[in-house]
Design a protein that fits this description.
Helices cover 15% and strands 34% of the residues. The strands form two sheets. It has a six-stranded mixed beta sheet. The relative contact order is 0.14. The protein is globular and about 50 Å long. By secondary structure, it is α+β, with helices and mostly antiparallel strands. A hairpin with a 4-residue loop joins strand 9 (213-222) and strand 10 (227-235). It has two domains: 7-124, Nuclear Transport Factor 2, Chain: A; 149-274, Nuclear Transport Factor 2, Chain: A (Roll), CATH 3.10.450.50. The chain has helices at 5-8, 24-40, 132-139, 155-167, and strands spanning 49-57, 60-61, 77-83, 88-95, 102-111, 114-123, 180-188, 191-192, 213-222, 227-235, 245-255, 258-266. The protein has four helices and twelve strands, in the order ααββββββααββββββ. Bound molecules: 2-acetamido-2-deoxy-beta-D-glucopyranose (8 copies). The site of one 2-acetamido-2-deoxy-beta-D-glucopyranose (NAG) has 5 residues, from helix 2. One 2-acetamido-2-deoxy-beta-D-glucopyranose binds next to loops. This is DUF8021 domain-containing protein. Pfam families: DUF8021. InterPro entries: DUF8021 (IPR058334). Keywords: Signal. It comes from Delitschia confertaspora ATCC 74209.
């Protein structure tokens, strides 16, 4: 219900008094401006964009003037996270508008209060298992709340868990190297493994390809929410182009060192990545 922001515009009245460029409040304010740009199609309010902004959609340079940033998307839901160490924002948001549904994941890099990079993985019809309504439905059933301070994992532990999963995509390392807990569910496009059993560990991969790899990983870590997001190139996802990588985003919720949720937003070269899956992978 983003359009109501047109009336609210709470962030515009926010008086930034701190010089701490990476304070949580500053990141939250910047995230609001990004979401407002995406929902209005108007970047003129976004006074914290670098003149040399790098704006990428699915690993290609694009312009905020002629891209999804200019469309004015009706955003159905979002999950937004803050990495105060790297000064980055990550948001996982859904547009279920039947005219053109999307699931979009964005990493924003902020330097001294200025957004230098906006890097998005954008999925739509034809992408990996795409179904925005189903993605929205399952995602909003889950809890990715703040973890109490004494129970948080270190950034190293969180990243290691995410890497263990991503390194297992080719199947060579087996399931036991991946620290999954129970319940654990994977949401891939619109397919949810937890729909089969919401209390079991449903995160192990049943379908693997030997050449699978996740390269050029760009990490985002929010230890307050036990969340790691990794952008990368997924080699082998598109079965018709096994020697090419496609833009991919994996997001992990980790509690007590154990993976609980995995969201995957994967893109395809050939519609459906050359698979017509009718069952969860
Ligand atoms: C994309 O933009 C970056 C930064 O402006 C630039 O360094 C790079 O060469 C561009 N890539 C292409 C393929 O144009
Ligand atoms: C993003 O989600 C938060 C929390 O659910 C909500 O308060 C905010 O309005 C949402 N933003 C947009 C642009 O939908
Ligand atoms: C954004 O830019 C404005 C104007 O340059 C500045 O006043 C404000 O502090 C900046 N906000 C953040 C979050 O850095
Ligand atoms: C997408 O998911 C929704 C809700 O789960 C379902 O009703 C719909 O049939 C699905 N659409 C397609 C094209 O599979
Ligand atoms: C991993 O777990 C899945 C689901 O339980 C199972 O189908 C698969 O065979 C296991 N793979 C390995 C390498 O053990
Ligand atoms: C779900 O998983 C739990 C734990 O593995 C198991 O005890 C239960 O029987 C499963 N339920 C169904 C409906 O398969
Ligand atoms: C990748 O495979 C395709 C055929 O599937 C081939 O046409 C292409 O040349 C290969 N590219 C590389 C870089 O090996
Ligand atoms: C997937 O479905 C489409 C349309 O039904 C069909 O043309 C295509 O051959 C199918 N691909 C595979 C790999 O089964």
């Amino acid at each position: 219900m983003v359009r109501s922001n047109l009336l609210g515009l709470g962030f515009l009245s926010f008086a930034a008094t701190t010089l701490a460029a990476c304070g949580l409040i500053n990141l939250e304010e910047t995230a609001d401006k990004y979401m407002y740009m995406m929902s209005s199609g108007d970047h003129s309010w976004f006074d914290n964009l670098s003149y040399e902004l790098v704006y990428k959609e699915n690993d290609k340079n694009a312009s905020i003037l002629f891209s999804v940033a200019s469309m004015g998307l009706y955003i159905t839901s979002n999950r937004t996270f803050y990495d105060a160490t790297q000064c980055r924002i990550f948001t996982d948001f859904v547009v279920t508008n039947p005219e053109h549904p999307y699931v979009i994941n964005t990493q924003l890099y902020v330097v001294d209060g200025i957004v230098e990079t906006i890097d998005s993985v954008i999925s739509q019809a034809g992408d990996y298992q795409f179904n925005a309504s189903a993605y929205n439905y399952w995602s909003t059933q889950e809890s990715w709340d703040v973890i109490p301070e004494g129970k948080r994992n270190s950034r190293q532990t969180l990243q290691a868990a995410a890497d263990a999963y991503l390194d297992s995509l080719n199947g060579k390392s087996g399931n036991s190297t991946v620290p999954t807990g129970a319940p654990c569910s994977r949401l891939e496009g619109g397919v949810y493994t937890g729909s089969q059993n919401s209390t079991a560990d449903m995160c192990n991969l049943r379908r693997r390809i030997p050449s699978a790899s996740l390269t050029n990983r760009r990490y985002f870590i929010d230890e307050t929410k036990g969340t790691v997001n990794v952008f990368g190139g997924y080699g082998g996802l598109d079965r018709t182009r096994l020697n090419q990588t496609v833009p991919d985003s994996h997001t992990f919720r980790i509690e007590d060192g154990k993976i609980r949720y995995i969201h995957m937003v994967g893109t395809c070269i050939t519609p459906g990545c050359g698979m017509n899956l009718t069952v969860p992978p």
